[in-house]
Structures are given as C-alpha cells and as structure tokens.
C-alpha cells in the first residue's frame, strides 16, 4: 500500500526487455535506506518487488500483465522514474490509498501554465471514467493528485511547482502516456453497486451514467 507522495526520482541504469517482460535496474538513494529483498517499491505508480539491491541501485522484474497495462515498456536507460516505498504503519498519510495496481494508461492532451500551477488534461479509457469525480483523488504515474475537471473522456489535474520539479509528470508533455490508478474506494463502491444492480435486474442492467439518471441520481 502506498500514499502517492513521491519520495524521490530514480534513474533507470539498465533495462533488459524480453517478450512482454522486463528486468529493470534503478539508481536511487532514499528508498534504499532500509530496503530488503522482497520489499515493494512503486515505480511510476506500479508496485514492483525488489529482487536484488546494492547501496546505490535495486532491480525489479516486470511480468507480462504489467508490461501490457502500464507505461513501463516505454522506459529506456537514463529514464527518470517516480519512486515510493510502501507506507509504514503509524506514519503520516499525506496522499490517498494507492495500491500500485494500475488500472490503465491515459494520454496527456493538453498542458498549460496557470499562475503558479500547471494544468494537465488527460484523456482516459472510457471504462475508467465512472471512477472520476470533481475533487476526487487519482494516482498519475504514482503521484496522488486531486481532480478539478471532468468531461466525457478526460480529467484535469493541477500541479504545484514542487510536484512539477520532484516528479516525472513535470517533464512530460502533450502526447505522452501516463499510468493511471483510480481511487480504490470508488472501485469498491462501484463493484458493490454493480453486483446489486445485477442481482435486482437478473443481470439485465449495467452500471452506467444512464442507469443512474433513470433511477433518480
């Protein structure tokens, strides 16, 4: 479990790509302070397991499912990556519940400055749009962000200067892809509601915006 508060930017020092698999070695400092074999570290929002490490770098394996559904396959040697260790019990919880299990990828379709912030408009896969709401939470490349704009197929988030300079999202621009993890609580609620709808309609109804409208929401 993670919080979406990025601890440091790491750098890919080596990468070995196979047939829908990857072995990545990442240079880092802070996340290695108390690392152990088998620890979970979120890399651009993807929960990965440490398979080996030194005092300067660690190695992780990427399996086919992760390869297919995330942007990790786009990484190259020298790529910067967001890093976060699994949250510690009893520590401060500054973001939101982030599992490190990416739901899909989005595409940045607009990036523009607004006073001291930078606005990102991100096009999302249609099945994920039901999980987004104004002032709700989303993890973009592992960074916990607040949604302040929702359209039929996009969300808008805003980055403060600190987030711009301390995460990979700050360096990304129009046309680039990002890992997206929807709010965990929203997914649980949606799943329970879908089950209830199917139970009451004999499986004849799906949980859609039209269904909500027809039922007074």
TrEMBL record:
Superkingdom of source: Bacteria
Known catalytic reactions: 2 6,7-dimethyl-8-(1-D-ribityl)lumazine + H(+) = 5-amino-6-(D-ribitylamino)uracil + riboflavin
Q: Name one GO molecular function term.
A: riboflavin synthase activity
Record protein name field: Riboflavin synthase
Question: Keywords, A to Z?
Answer: Repeat, Riboflavin biosynthesis, Transferase
Segments forming domain Lumazine-binding: 1-96, 97-193
- Classification via SUPFAM superfamilies: Riboflavin synthase domain-like
Job of this protein:
Catalyzes the dismutation of two molecules of 6,7-dimethyl-8-ribityllumazine, resulting in the formation of riboflavin and 5-amino-6-(D-ribitylamino)uracil.
**Does this entry carry the keyword Repeat?**
yes
Q: Which Pfam families match?
A: Lum_binding
Q: Name one GO biological process term.
A: riboflavin biosynthetic process
The Lumazine-binding repeats extend over 1-96, 97-193
- From which organism does this entry originate? Fictibacillus aquaticus
């Amino acid at each position: 479990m993670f919080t979406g508060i990025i601890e440091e930017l790491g750098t890919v020092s080596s990468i070995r790509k196979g047939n829908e698999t990857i072995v990545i070695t990442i240079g880092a400092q802070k996340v290695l302070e108390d690392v152990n074999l088998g620890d979970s570290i979120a890399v651009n929002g993807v929960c990965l397991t440490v398979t080996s490490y030194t005092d300067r770098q660690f190695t992780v394996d990427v399996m086919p499912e992760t390869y297919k559904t995330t942007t990790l396959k786009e990484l190259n040697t020298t790529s910067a990556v967001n890093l976060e260790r699994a949250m510690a019990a009893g520590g401060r919880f500054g973001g939101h519940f982030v599992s490190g299990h990416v739901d899909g990828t989005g595409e940045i379709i607009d990036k523009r400055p607004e006073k001291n912030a930078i606005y990102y408009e991100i096009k999302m896969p249609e099945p994920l749009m039901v999980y987004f709401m104004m002032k709700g939470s989303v993890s973009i490349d592992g960074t916990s962000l607040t949604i302040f704009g929702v359209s039929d197929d996009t969300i808008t988030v805003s980055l403060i200067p600190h987030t711009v300079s301390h995460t990979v999202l700050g360096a990304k621009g129009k046309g680039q892809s990002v890992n997206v993890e929807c709010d965990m609580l929203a997914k649980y609620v949606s799943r329970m509601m879908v089950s209830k709808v199917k139970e009451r309609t004999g499986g004849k109804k799906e949980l859609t915006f039209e269904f909500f409208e027809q039922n007074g929401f």
